[in-house]
Amino acid sequence: MNQAVNMNANHASHAPAYFSAWDIHSYYGESYIVQGVSMNVHEGEILALLGRNGAGKTSTLRSIARIGEPMVTHGEMWLDHQPLHEMNSHQAARAGVALVPEDRRIIQGLTVEENLKLAQIAPPRGWSIERIYELFPRLGERAKQEGTTLSGGEQQMLAIGRALARDIKLLLLDEPYEGLAPVIVHEIEKTLMEIRSLGITTIIVEQNAVAALKLADRAVILDMGQVVYDGLAKDVLDNEELRKEYLAI
Ligand SMILES: Nc1ncnc2c1ncn2[C@@H]1O[C@H](COP(=O)(O)OP(=O)(O)OP(=O)(O)O)[C@@H](O)[C@H]1O
Ligand SMILES: [Mg+2]
What we know:
The chain is of the alpha/beta class and 249 residues long. It has a domain at 3-96 and 169-247: Rossmann fold (3-Layer(aba) Sandwich). It has eleven helices and ten strands. The protein has a six-stranded mixed β-sheet, sandwiched between helices. A four-stranded antiparallel β-sheet has the order 2-1-4-5, with helices on one face. The longest helix is centred in the C-terminal third of the chain and has 16 residues, at 182-197. It is globular, with a radius of gyration of 17 Å. The two termini are 19 Å apart. The protein binds adenosine-5'-triphosphate and magnesium ion. Adenosine-5'-triphosphate is lined by residues 28, 31, 33, 51, 53-59, 69. Magnesium ion (MG) is lined by residues 57-58. Pfam families: ABC_tran (PF00005). Residues 19-249 form the ABC transporter domain.
Protein backbone atom coordinates (compact mmCIF):
# COMPACT_ATOMS: atom_id res chain seq x y z
CA MET A 1 0.00 0.00 0.00
CA ASN A 2 1.28 3.45 -0.76
CA GLN A 3 1.80 6.30 1.66
CA ALA A 4 -1.31 8.20 0.60
CA VAL A 5 -3.54 5.22 1.34
CA ASN A 6 -2.06 4.73 4.81
CA MET A 7 -2.42 8.38 5.67
CA ASN A 8 -5.98 8.27 4.46
CA ALA A 9 -6.75 5.26 6.67
CA ASN A 10 -5.19 6.90 9.73
CA HIS A 11 -7.07 10.07 9.18
CA ALA A 12 -10.36 8.28 8.57
CA SER A 13 -10.13 6.29 11.80
CA HIS A 14 -10.72 9.50 13.78
CA ALA A 15 -13.70 10.60 11.70
CA PRO A 16 -17.27 9.47 12.43
CA ALA A 17 -18.18 6.37 10.44
CA TYR A 18 -20.10 6.77 7.23
CA PHE A 19 -21.63 3.32 7.45
CA SER A 20 -22.17 1.60 10.80
CA ALA A 21 -23.74 -1.71 11.67
CA TRP A 22 -24.45 -2.31 15.35
CA ASP A 23 -25.10 -5.79 16.68
CA ILE A 24 -26.87 -7.23 13.63
CA HIS A 25 -28.65 -10.56 14.06
CA SER A 26 -30.33 -12.32 11.13
CA TYR A 27 -32.12 -15.55 10.36
CA TYR A 28 -33.09 -17.71 7.39
CA GLY A 29 -36.28 -19.09 8.87
CA GLU A 30 -35.14 -20.83 12.06
CA SER A 31 -31.45 -20.77 11.09
CA TYR A 32 -29.60 -18.19 13.13
CA ILE A 33 -26.77 -17.02 10.88
CA VAL A 34 -25.59 -13.45 11.52
CA GLN A 35 -24.93 -13.45 15.26
CA GLY A 36 -24.25 -9.94 16.47
CA VAL A 37 -22.12 -8.40 13.73
CA SER A 38 -20.93 -4.81 14.10
CA MET A 39 -18.72 -2.83 11.75
CA ASN A 40 -17.81 0.70 10.80
CA VAL A 41 -16.71 1.95 7.42
CA HIS A 42 -15.44 5.46 6.89
CA GLU A 43 -16.27 7.48 3.81
CA GLY A 44 -14.07 6.58 0.87
CA GLU A 45 -12.67 3.52 2.60
CA ILE A 46 -12.55 -0.06 1.35
CA LEU A 47 -13.38 -2.68 3.97
CA ALA A 48 -12.55 -6.33 3.27
CA LEU A 49 -15.11 -8.67 4.82
CA LEU A 50 -13.44 -12.06 5.05
CA GLY A 51 -13.86 -15.51 6.53
CA ARG A 52 -14.16 -19.16 5.61
CA ASN A 53 -16.94 -20.66 3.49
CA GLY A 54 -20.20 -20.39 5.37
CA ALA A 55 -18.89 -17.79 7.83
CA GLY A 56 -21.81 -15.48 7.01
CA LYS A 57 -20.24 -12.96 4.61
CA THR A 58 -22.95 -13.07 1.95
CA SER A 59 -25.63 -13.10 4.64
CA THR A 60 -24.12 -9.97 6.16
CA LEU A 61 -24.11 -8.16 2.80
CA ARG A 62 -27.71 -9.22 2.19
CA SER A 63 -28.65 -7.99 5.65
CA ILE A 64 -27.12 -4.58 4.89
CA ALA A 65 -28.91 -4.40 1.52
CA ARG A 66 -32.17 -5.33 3.30
CA ILE A 67 -32.89 -8.14 0.84
CA GLY A 68 -35.36 -9.73 3.29
CA GLU A 69 -33.63 -13.12 3.38
CA PRO A 70 -32.00 -13.44 5.85
CA MET A 71 -34.39 -11.52 8.05
CA VAL A 72 -32.72 -9.01 10.33
CA THR A 73 -34.31 -9.31 13.77
CA HIS A 74 -32.06 -7.05 15.79
CA GLY A 75 -29.57 -4.24 15.36
CA GLU A 76 -29.14 -0.92 13.66
CA MET A 77 -27.49 0.03 10.39
CA TRP A 78 -26.82 3.61 9.45
CA LEU A 79 -25.57 4.95 6.13
CA ASP A 80 -24.74 8.64 6.04
CA HIS A 81 -27.24 9.31 8.86
CA GLN A 82 -29.99 7.23 7.23
CA PRO A 83 -31.48 4.29 9.18
CA LEU A 84 -31.14 1.28 6.84
CA HIS A 85 -32.57 -0.99 9.54
CA GLU A 86 -35.95 0.69 9.05
CA MET A 87 -35.93 0.15 5.28
CA ASN A 88 -36.82 -2.52 2.74
CA SER A 89 -34.50 -3.35 -0.18
CA HIS A 90 -35.96 -0.70 -2.50
CA GLN A 91 -35.63 2.01 0.11
CA ALA A 92 -32.08 0.91 0.92
CA ALA A 93 -31.23 1.06 -2.80
CA ARG A 94 -32.66 4.59 -2.97
CA ALA A 95 -30.65 5.47 0.13
CA GLY A 96 -27.50 4.52 -1.80
CA VAL A 97 -26.80 0.85 -1.09
CA ALA A 98 -25.70 -1.13 -4.15
CA LEU A 99 -25.15 -4.88 -3.84
CA VAL A 100 -23.28 -6.61 -6.67
CA PRO A 101 -24.09 -10.26 -5.99
CA GLU A 102 -21.80 -13.17 -6.73
CA ASP A 103 -23.77 -14.25 -9.80
CA ARG A 104 -23.66 -10.69 -11.23
CA ARG A 105 -27.26 -10.85 -12.55
CA ILE A 106 -26.69 -9.48 -16.04
CA ILE A 107 -30.10 -9.21 -17.70
CA GLN A 108 -30.61 -11.61 -20.56
CA GLY A 109 -31.64 -10.24 -23.96
CA LEU A 110 -30.25 -6.77 -23.22
CA THR A 111 -27.07 -5.26 -24.61
CA VAL A 112 -24.35 -3.85 -22.39
CA GLU A 113 -25.70 -0.35 -22.95
CA GLU A 114 -29.30 -1.39 -22.27
CA ASN A 115 -28.22 -3.03 -19.01
CA LEU A 116 -26.62 0.28 -17.98
CA LYS A 117 -29.55 2.40 -19.15
CA LEU A 118 -32.01 0.25 -17.25
CA ALA A 119 -30.08 0.98 -14.05
CA GLN A 120 -30.61 4.69 -14.67
CA ILE A 121 -34.38 4.53 -15.06
CA ALA A 122 -35.16 5.05 -11.39
CA PRO A 123 -33.70 8.24 -9.92
CA PRO A 124 -31.39 9.31 -8.37
CA ARG A 125 -29.05 8.82 -11.27
CA GLY A 126 -25.33 8.27 -10.84
CA TRP A 127 -22.60 8.21 -13.41
CA SER A 128 -23.31 8.85 -17.10
CA ILE A 129 -22.90 5.95 -19.53
CA GLU A 130 -19.92 7.80 -21.07
CA ARG A 131 -18.19 8.02 -17.71
CA ILE A 132 -18.73 4.32 -17.07
CA TYR A 133 -17.14 3.58 -20.46
CA GLU A 134 -14.18 5.77 -19.50
CA LEU A 135 -13.69 3.65 -16.38
CA PHE A 136 -14.26 0.39 -18.29
CA PRO A 137 -13.19 0.91 -21.92
CA ARG A 138 -13.96 -2.77 -22.59
CA LEU A 139 -17.63 -2.07 -21.94
CA GLY A 140 -17.63 0.83 -24.39
CA GLU A 141 -16.11 -1.40 -27.07
CA ARG A 142 -18.86 -3.94 -26.46
CA ALA A 143 -21.79 -1.54 -25.95
CA LYS A 144 -24.02 -3.31 -28.48
CA GLN A 145 -23.11 -6.85 -27.42
CA GLU A 146 -25.61 -8.85 -25.39
CA GLY A 147 -24.56 -8.59 -21.76
CA THR A 148 -24.80 -12.30 -21.01
CA THR A 149 -22.33 -13.10 -23.83
CA LEU A 150 -19.55 -11.08 -22.17
CA SER A 151 -16.63 -12.89 -20.56
CA GLY A 152 -16.75 -13.39 -16.80
CA GLY A 153 -14.47 -10.42 -16.19
CA GLU A 154 -16.45 -8.18 -18.51
CA GLN A 155 -19.69 -9.22 -16.82
CA GLN A 156 -18.17 -8.23 -13.48
CA MET A 157 -17.24 -4.86 -14.96
CA LEU A 158 -20.79 -4.46 -16.24
CA ALA A 159 -22.20 -5.37 -12.83
CA ILE A 160 -19.98 -2.73 -11.17
CA GLY A 161 -20.74 -0.22 -13.93
CA ARG A 162 -24.44 -0.81 -13.43
CA ALA A 163 -24.06 -0.06 -9.71
CA LEU A 164 -22.28 3.20 -10.53
CA ALA A 165 -25.06 4.17 -12.94
CA ARG A 166 -27.12 4.79 -9.82
CA ASP A 167 -26.25 7.42 -7.24
CA ILE A 168 -24.63 5.16 -4.66
CA LYS A 169 -23.07 5.75 -1.28
CA LEU A 170 -22.07 2.19 -0.37
CA LEU A 171 -20.88 -0.43 -2.85
CA LEU A 172 -21.18 -4.04 -1.64
CA LEU A 173 -19.18 -6.51 -3.74
CA ASP A 174 -19.68 -10.24 -3.19
CA GLU A 175 -16.67 -12.14 -4.56
CA PRO A 176 -15.96 -9.89 -7.54
CA TYR A 177 -12.85 -11.87 -8.50
CA GLU A 178 -14.50 -15.27 -8.50
CA GLY A 179 -13.57 -17.38 -11.50
CA LEU A 180 -11.46 -14.65 -13.09
CA ALA A 181 -7.93 -14.92 -14.47
CA PRO A 182 -5.25 -13.00 -12.51
CA VAL A 183 -4.82 -10.44 -15.28
CA ILE A 184 -8.55 -9.57 -15.17
CA VAL A 185 -8.50 -9.52 -11.37
CA HIS A 186 -5.71 -6.97 -11.64
CA GLU A 187 -7.73 -4.87 -14.07
CA ILE A 188 -10.74 -4.84 -11.74
CA GLU A 189 -8.49 -4.07 -8.77
CA LYS A 190 -7.20 -0.98 -10.54
CA THR A 191 -10.75 0.14 -11.19
CA LEU A 192 -11.73 -0.35 -7.57
CA MET A 193 -8.77 1.81 -6.51
CA GLU A 194 -9.90 4.44 -8.97
CA ILE A 195 -13.43 4.26 -7.57
CA ARG A 196 -12.04 4.71 -4.06
CA SER A 197 -10.05 7.75 -5.13
CA LEU A 198 -13.38 9.25 -6.19
CA GLY A 199 -14.66 8.83 -2.64
CA ILE A 200 -16.94 5.81 -3.01
CA THR A 201 -17.18 3.61 0.07
CA THR A 202 -16.88 -0.13 -0.53
CA ILE A 203 -17.26 -3.41 1.34
CA ILE A 204 -15.62 -6.26 -0.55
CA VAL A 205 -16.17 -9.94 0.25
CA GLU A 206 -13.54 -12.18 -1.32
CA GLN A 207 -12.21 -15.72 -1.11
CA ASN A 208 -9.03 -14.29 -2.60
CA ALA A 209 -8.17 -12.78 0.77
CA VAL A 210 -4.67 -11.67 -0.17
CA ALA A 211 -5.97 -9.63 -3.10
CA ALA A 212 -8.76 -8.13 -1.00
CA LEU A 213 -6.38 -7.27 1.86
CA LYS A 214 -3.95 -5.54 -0.48
CA LEU A 215 -6.76 -3.40 -1.79
CA ALA A 216 -8.56 -2.69 1.48
CA ASP A 217 -7.85 -0.14 4.19
CA ARG A 218 -9.47 -2.18 6.94
CA ALA A 219 -10.66 -5.75 7.41
CA VAL A 220 -13.37 -7.53 9.35
CA ILE A 221 -13.10 -11.31 9.66
CA LEU A 222 -16.21 -13.36 10.40
CA ASP A 223 -16.37 -16.83 11.83
CA MET A 224 -19.64 -18.63 12.47
CA GLY A 225 -21.60 -15.42 12.08
CA GLN A 226 -19.49 -13.41 14.52
CA VAL A 227 -16.70 -10.88 14.17
CA VAL A 228 -13.34 -12.36 15.18
CA TYR A 229 -11.14 -9.54 13.86
CA ASP A 230 -11.66 -5.86 13.14
CA GLY A 231 -8.61 -3.82 12.28
CA LEU A 232 -6.19 -2.70 9.62
CA ALA A 233 -5.99 -4.85 6.50
CA LYS A 234 -2.21 -4.76 6.48
CA ASP A 235 -2.10 -6.16 10.02
CA VAL A 236 -3.97 -9.26 8.82
CA LEU A 237 -1.37 -9.81 6.11
CA ASP A 238 1.32 -9.70 8.80
CA ASN A 239 -0.56 -11.98 11.23
CA GLU A 240 0.17 -15.58 10.35
CA GLU A 241 -2.01 -17.03 13.09
CA LEU A 242 -5.07 -15.09 12.00
CA ARG A 243 -4.46 -15.95 8.38
CA LYS A 244 -4.10 -19.66 9.10
CA GLU A 245 -7.01 -19.92 11.48
CA TYR A 246 -9.66 -17.98 9.60
CA LEU A 247 -8.48 -17.47 6.05
CA ALA A 248 -6.44 -20.55 5.18
CA ILE A 249 -3.76 -18.42 3.51
N1 LIG B 1 -31.20 -19.32 2.09
C1 LIG B 1 -30.63 -19.93 3.12
N2 LIG B 1 -31.34 -20.71 3.98
C2 LIG B 1 -30.76 -21.30 5.03
N3 LIG B 1 -29.45 -21.18 5.33
C3 LIG B 1 -28.70 -20.43 4.53
C4 LIG B 1 -29.23 -19.76 3.38
N4 LIG B 1 -28.23 -19.10 2.77
C5 LIG B 1 -27.13 -19.34 3.51
N5 LIG B 1 -27.41 -20.13 4.56
C6 LIG B 1 -26.46 -20.61 5.57
O1 LIG B 1 -25.92 -19.50 6.23
C7 LIG B 1 -24.54 -19.72 6.55
C8 LIG B 1 -23.74 -18.55 6.03
O2 LIG B 1 -23.84 -18.51 4.62
P1 LIG B 1 -23.23 -17.35 3.76
O3 LIG B 1 -23.65 -17.58 2.36
O4 LIG B 1 -23.55 -16.06 4.38
O5 LIG B 1 -21.67 -17.64 3.95
P2 LIG B 1 -20.42 -17.02 3.20
O6 LIG B 1 -19.49 -16.56 4.26
O7 LIG B 1 -20.85 -16.04 2.19
O8 LIG B 1 -19.78 -18.32 2.52
P3 LIG B 1 -19.05 -18.50 1.09
O9 LIG B 1 -17.65 -18.05 1.31
O10 LIG B 1 -19.14 -19.97 0.86
O11 LIG B 1 -19.79 -17.69 0.08
C9 LIG B 1 -24.18 -21.06 5.92
O12 LIG B 1 -24.18 -22.01 6.93
C10 LIG B 1 -25.30 -21.31 4.93
O13 LIG B 1 -25.54 -22.68 4.78
MG1 LIG C 1 -20.80 -16.01 0.13
